[in-house]
Design goal:
Layout: H1 10-31, E1 35-41, H2 47-58, E2 64-70, H3 76-82, E3 88-92, H4 101-109, E4 118-122, E5 139-145, H5 152-155, H6 157-160, E6 165-169, H7 181-191, E7 196-199, H8 208-221
Helix pairs in contact: 1-4, 2-8
Length: 222
């Protein structure tokens, strides 16, 4: 047996370094009185729509900043946010399927944190990679949508663990799409008992008031 042989757990080391920086990000945000939300979801679930509606509903009440994560250097979503006169930083991950704490720190450094009370981080659209990487957020949010199907908590359990809230978007499509909402909720509850679930529609506005009030409560409690 070669006693000089070593095994280096690369993945564990990467996550450890990331978690350390995420903790520092979170501490800085807390010191400045900023609540950070990490918004995760699959592509097409309505992450950006939810962010836009959230900004509109909170306009004039709190100061908001956004970090927008994308795998490609397109600015479609960032432009929509900027058009609402909200400071936004786009992070091109260079093809990586998630944001990490280092990327978010660069985004934080590019924002005037002294003029922000709520930092919304839109993670890359993916139901696998973002689950493993902490960013410095105070609350983890997953957005699901009716057209995705009711089996997602069963097929992608890791991203649904440890959530602070679950947004079920596009409920206006329930009459037209086969979706067992009780089956979906049972899957969420099995992974994350007692998690807050918001049933809403960014298109019609249904349920958005409840979501808005929850955010305000988190800011006041932070």
């Amino acid at each position: 047996m070669n006693s000089n042989k070593q095994t280096i757990p690369i993945v564990q080391k990467i996550l450890s370094v990331n978690d350390d920086l995420a903790s520092r990000n979170k501490n800085l945000l807390s010191e400045k009185g900023i609540l950070a939300l990490n918004i995760m979801a699959s592509p097409g679930s309505g992450k950006t729509s939810l962010i836009l509606r959230t900004i509109e509903s909170l306009a004039g009440r709190i100061k908001i900043g956004v970090i927008e994560g994308d795998t490609a250097p397109v600015t479609i979503d960032a432009d929509k946010i900027s058009n609402l006169n909200i400071p936004v930083v786009q992070i091109n991950t260079g093809g990586e399927c998630h944001l990490d704490a280092s990327m978010v720190r660069k985004g934080m450094d590019a924002l005037d944190l002294s003029n922000i009370e709520l930092l919304i981080i839109e993670n890359v659209g993916n139901l696998v990679c973002p689950a493993a990487f902490r960013l410095g957020e105070h609350k983890n949010i997953v957005v699901s949508s009716i057209p995705e199907g009711d089996d997602k908590p069963y097929k992608y359990p890791n991203i649904y663990r440890g959530l602070d809230a679950l947004v079920l978007n596009k409920v206006d499509l329930l009459p037209y799409v086969e979706f067992d909402i009780e089956y979906f909720k049972a899957g969420i509850s099995a992974l994350n008992p007692g998690v807050e679930i918001f049933e809403l529609s960014c298109k019609t506005g249904t349920g958005l008031d409840h979501w808005k009030e929850w955010i305000l409560q988190q800011i006041e409690a932070d």
